[in-house]
Structure formats: C-alpha cells, structure tokens
C-alpha cells in the first residue's frame, strides 16, 4: 500500500509557461521518478470505467478510461453521463489539499483520465457544465507520456498548441472555458500511456 509520504507533492517554484488568456502551465512540478511512481499507483488504485455516450444518435465508448473521485454526494454530469464519486484515497486527498492551498480554490472533485496510448484521445470541448460555475478553475496534473494539448479560440478559431510533459500542471481559470475549447488529439506514434488528474470545484447546490 502506497502512503502519502511515497510521493512528492506538487511544487510551484518551477518554470511557468504563459498561454492564451486563462491558461497557465507550471512545468516540472513533480520529479520524473515521483511522477512515474504516482502514475503506476493510479493504474492500480483507480476504479477505471469506459462510459458510453451518444454522438449524433450513435452510442459509442469514449476513447479513454476514467475515474471520478469527489466528496460524498457530489455527482458529476457531462455529455449525458452521470458519474457517482469514488472516495478519496489518502494520496489523492493530500495532492488535492496541496493544490487547493496553492491556487486558493477549495477543490472537491477529481476526474482522472487514462489515455492508454496515442490512440486514446479527447475531442474539442469546454468544461462548462453548470455545476462548475461560470468561470471554473481546473488544475490538471499530467503523468506519463508527453501529449499534445490544443486550445481553440471560439470566435476566431485560432489554435494554440502545448506539449504537456509528465509532471506539468496546467491551470485553466478565468474565461478559459467561456472563450476557448480544448482537446487532446490522437497521436498514433505515442505507444505509452498518460494519466491526467483534473481537480475541480463542483457547486453543491447544482448537484441533483
């Protein structure tokens, strides 16, 4: 059983990469050794699911695996899915508390995505569900394979690219969800897996 002390909590005295309005990338917040240990811990710890969604009238499995973790009773809904939360492990609770302290946001939910290789992906979308509020703050910690992250301005359709490395923490806040969509496209040349932990605050009064 892994303990909290087995992992270095994210640190934020590292290089910050400026991006379009509302996006900030804190690079190398965890050492490669600790990031790799956390990646393999999550492979075993998370109750992975591959939900089905309806796209243009066709039911399909999402091209990645997911696990939703949150405070008790905080269901999360998107694309017609309702996800009931798994409880926090001591490790993930410690990371959540560290990020909450760093960013001044009382994170209470975590959506974990596992991209098994470059064939798994995430299409264009905004995290604009009502239960996240008008201008949510989402902290996304990357582990494992380096993957291309894209941001697209909704009005001009200008696309910005960011190569997310293991240990990077991307903060999306302000008008990032109002003004932009983002995606993680397929990269068939990538053979390794990637896990990203997306910490967020779910408004309790929006939970049904």
From TrEMBL:
Pfam families: 2OG-FeII_Oxy_2 (PF13532). Gene3D superfamilies: Alpha-ketoglutarate-dependent dioxygenase AlkB-like (2.60.120.590). One of its GO terms (molecular function) is demethylase activity. Residues 106-203 form the Fe2OG dioxygenase domain. The keyword Transferase does not apply. PROSITE patterns: FE2OG_OXY. Its cofactor is Fe(2+). This is Putative 2OG-Fe(II) oxygenase superfamily protein.
């Amino acid at each position: 059983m892994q303990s909290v002390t087995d992992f270095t909590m994210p640190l934020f005295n590292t290089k910050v990469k400026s991006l379009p309005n509302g996006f900030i990338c804190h690079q190398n917040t965890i050492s490669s050794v600790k990031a790799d240990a956390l990646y393999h811990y999550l492979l075993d710890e998370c109750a992975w699911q591959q939900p089905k969604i309806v796209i243009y009238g066709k039911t399909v499995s999402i091209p990645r695996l997911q696990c939703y973790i949150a405070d008790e009773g905080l269901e999360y809904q998107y694309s017609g899915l309702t996800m009931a939360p798994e409880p926090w492990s001591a490790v993930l609770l410690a990371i959540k508390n560290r990020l909450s302290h760093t960013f001044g946001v009382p994170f209470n939910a975590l959506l974990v995505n596992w991209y098994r290789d470059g064939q798994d992906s995430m299409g264009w979308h905004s995290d604009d569900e009502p239960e996240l509020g008008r201008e949510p703050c989402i902290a996304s910690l990357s582990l494992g394979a380096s993957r291309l992250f894209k941001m697209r301005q909704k009005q001009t359709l200008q696309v910005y690219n960011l190569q997310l490395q293991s240990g990077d923490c991307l903060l999306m806040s302000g008008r990032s969800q109002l003004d932009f969509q983002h995606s993680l496209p397929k990269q068939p040349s990538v053979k390794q897996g990637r896990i990203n932990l997306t910490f967020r605050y779910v408004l309790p009064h929006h939970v049904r």
